[in-house]
Write a structure and sequence with these properties.
It is a single chain. By secondary structure, this protein is α/β, with parallel strands linked by helices. The model has no long low-confidence stretch (mean pLDDT 94). It folds into 3 domains: 144 residues, NusB-like (N-utilizing Substance Protein B Homolog, Chain A), CATH 1.10.940; 55 residues, Sun protein, domain 3 (Alpha-Beta Plaits); 199 residues, Vaccinia Virus protein VP39 (Rossmann fold, 3-Layer(aba) Sandwich), CATH 3.40.50. A 7-stranded mixed β-sheet has the order 7-6-5-8-9-13-10, sandwiched between helices. Strands 2-3-1-4 form a 4-stranded antiparallel β-sheet, with helices on one face. Strands 11-12 form a two-stranded antiparallel sheet. The termini are far apart. It contains 18 helices and 13 strands. Helix 14 links the parallel strand 6 and strand 7.
Length: 434
């Protein structure tokens, strides 16, 4: 297990150096080419768990240290070990011994006997003081919720009735939800197919099935054949809300990785253009479309610019804009610690440019669906309100009217999905050009 601790500690260290966990974890794993599948899985669990509860773990560690550690890798290893002692089922004695052994394997001058002694002393001190320290930390909101204080404060103001539940949901393991292509198989038949393979699942929407336990993609019945796709229940709202009809010209801006692109094409035969600024990410979109046996025109371009546009207007535009991703933190646990409060203003400025640019490409009477995976008001209805003030030819359609043919069991406030067990925290606003 100490190998898994080392890998997780390296990944955590990279994240606090500014790297996304989706890149940091593979890089950490590459340092151990002989790692077993079990060790790989354990390292991933430890990495995600440590970052998920970092606020709590760091608060404990700060009270155990007489002064900040100068060696960031030892600091990261201690974070991982304390996560295990707080939240893992592993034996405490084993966790401490493995951490002591792990620090001796660090290829740095710090990997001396004093480092082993330090790690051993801190972890054993934690075990002795865990209960009294826990009492003193009860009033520490960063420790209690494991979010930055600015994040907590913002949610308190914007969601006085929901802020605590939003924080709690964000620290839970996300469900694995499938989107069933009902043109190929009914929900009922697909649930029976899962049952025959002893895969427990339940229907939560017109096309959505939630697995009781996540499984690897290659083991999902019908995935390779394009019968189902992995997509959050809340994200499955986008395609039906866009109100697409056969033969319309549709633009999916900022389309990668292509989940919503594929969903729209599954619903209706449209003339689809899928745009993204990253050519490498477009390759993933094409791969998804190939699996689903669907076709679209893929273009590399910046949605905030018209350089790529041929001048022909679109009947429908899906603007799934870049955002803080504050509504999907249970899937991307590093976001809480990589984001800064100033990033909210940066994203809102970028979103405004994209929205303004795309609006010029929308035909009269056409509809644009604005989407974020954020829960921050500035990026969502606040953004839409500013846009409506500047554009007299725009009107926002009532969310309930747009939702009438979509899924059930969605917790929302005027287009803002409140994160819950079935779905993440997406925001939707449907605009029409008048």
């Amino acid at each position: 297990m100490y190998i898994s601790q080392l890998i997780a500690a390296d990944a955590v260290h990279q994240v606090f150096s500014g790297r996304n966990l989706t890149l940091a974890l593979p890089a950490a794993l590459s340092l151990f080419p002989a790692v077993t599948p079990q060790q790989k899985g354990a390292a991933a669990d430890l990495s995600y768990g440590t970052l998920r509860f970092y606020g709590e773990i760091d608060a404990y560690l700060k009270r155990l240290l007489e002064k900040p550690l100068t060696d960031e890798r030892i600091h990261a290893l201690l974070l991982v070990a304390i996560y295990q002692l707080l939240h893992d089922k592993a034996d405490a004695f084993t966790v401490v011994n493995q951490a002591v052994h792990a620090v001796s394997q660090l290829k740095r001058p710090a990997a001396k006997s004093w480092a082993k002694g330090l790690v051993n002393a801190i972890l054993r001190n934690f075990l002795r003081q865990k209960e009294p320290l826990g009492v003193t930390l009860k009033t520490n909101e960063v420790a209690a919720y494991s979010y930055p204080q600015w994040w907590i404060n913002k949610l308190k103001i914007q969601y006085p009735d929901y802020w605590q539940s939003i924080l709690v949901i964000g620290n839970q393991h996300p469900p694995m939800t499938l989107r069933v292509n009902t043109h190929k198989i009914s929900i009922e038949d697909y649930l029976q197919l899962l049952a025959r393979q002893d895969i427990e699942a339940s229907q939560i929407g017109k096309q959505a099935v939630m697995l009781t336990k996540p499984i690897s993609v290659e083991k999902i019945p019908g995935f390779t054949e394009g019968v189902v796709s992995v997509q959050d229940y809340g994200a499955q709202l986008a395609a039906p809300l866009l109100d697409v009809q056969a033969n319309l010209r549709v633009l999916d801006a900022c389309c990668a990785p292509g989940g919503k692109t594929g969903h729209i094409l599954e619903l209706t035969d449209v003339n689809m253009t899928a745009l993204d600024s990253d050519e490498a990410r477009l390759q993933r979109v094409q791969s998804n479309l190939d699996r689903l046996k669907l076709k679209a025109t893929l273009l590399v371009g910046d949605a905030a610019s018209a350089d790529w546009h041929d001048g022909e207007l679109f009947d429908r535009i899906l603007a799934d804009v870049p955002c803080t991703a504050s509504g999907i933190v249970r899937r991307h646990v590093d976001i809480k610690w990589l984001r800064r409060e100033a990033d909210v203003a940066s994203f809102t400025a970028q979103q405004a440019k994209i929205l303004s640019s795309l609006w010029q490409m929308l035909a009269k009477s056409g509809k644009l669906l604005y989407v974020t995976c954020s829960v921050f008001h500035e990026e969502n209805q606040g953004q839409i309100d500013k846009f409506l003030q500047k554009n007299a030819d725009a009107m926002q359609l009532p969310f309930e009217a747009a939702l009438h043919n979509a899924q059930e069991n969605i917790t929302h406030i005027n287009g803002q999905l409140i994160p819950s067990n079935p779905h993440d925290g997406f925001f939707y606003a449907l605009l029409q050009k008048i």
